[in-house]
Sequence to fold (443 residues):
Amino acid sequence: MKKTSIWFIFLIIFVFLDSAQAVPGFARQTGLECFMCHTQNQSKLNSFGRNFARSGYAMSTEVGSQSLIDGKELGLSIPTVLNLSVMLKARWDKGDDVINGKGRVLKSVDGDDVGSNRGEHEIFKTSTINIAGRLSENVGGLLEFREKEGKAILGGKVIAAFDTGDSYSGFAVYSTNNYGPFSGMETYNTGLYKPLRQFENHKLTNAAQASDLGSGAATGAQVYYAGEHLFATLGAYVPMHNSDGIDSGSTAIGLARLAYELPISNMILTVGAFGISGQAEASNTIFDPSLSGVVPRALVTVEKEAYGLDLQLEGDIMDVSTLLTVNAVFKNKTTLSDPTLMVGGGIFGEPEDAETQAYSVDLAVYPWSSLGFKVAYLNMDDKGPHTFEPDKIDAKDKHALSFGLDYSFRQNIMFTVEYSMVSPSRDDINDYTDALAVLTISF
Fold:
């Protein structure tokens, strides 16, 4: 789909949507405000929001929720009004002396380092159109449309949940081009699931995102249990998105996640662990579409090993809403069975050949419900091995300190400003900064 078509869709939504005062689809379904599920910020979930997701998005209230179309023979229970919602984002990003985005140290003809000063205005780059909500009493889903490089990208998930009174259990199937392997069922704000994080600039503030463990293409399934204190999930995925034209073998990569919630006074402390292990086969041209027609199409075995710990502390400290998240990725290693199959036209590419470690701490405090301040520290270690690109090794190693401010004009309009100071570990890479401003509107 051409970019003009994407803009036309957004224009139609703006012109013909019933009311500019409308709130996103889940709020229409439940009859509740957005802040019932979100912690001050549209990007973070509270305990009620976690339970809503674990219910398969099927929860609704007795008063104020939408009327339903019941199909008893088919087991359907669908809202009479389509739960369409839109999230629009306008971004301004300015970096000074930032190294090449792929982690390479560029050299000029006379051997000097080449810096990068970028100032980008991104309108709708991370904007989405969503159709979401219940399909029956215990089944719900989320369908997302977004634009990427002039193409329409479709992703989503379907969740079947079973309520046992004091717990939920169920399974989810999903496919995403961007949100990572835990997309089926992950509800904490530690960055394992890309949409749930503290900072917009995820690559400089969150370990799971900086190490690419909590992002990227994934198609898979998860089963889960969510009790009063314990959350556990098991699943398997292939590192591809449905729109990529999946060409894979019969194998899949396993994943597991365990978390325990402990109430402490006005706070909830959550301690968790996560792991990914296994291998899958995929076409070399899926990993790098530019190779299509240049090199022979062949299956490459992708082996993945990753594990780490995370922590979340949420609640009120001296009547101030506070959220602390910690993520420690001890190992995230991905290996290709035959990197030479990724070679084409004299250009060497190893998009999945890497090993990283990362640690991050993010803290946000909200003295007022509409205004919050946040700070983050990230340590990143890129170990390689980049067999054909030795200049990539350690180029992503860094320490980053970030500050931010979130201001909600109302529950569905938020303005964010973030500033990061980055100190690379290599002597031949200078310190650099990155400034980011984002306006998010949801309706």
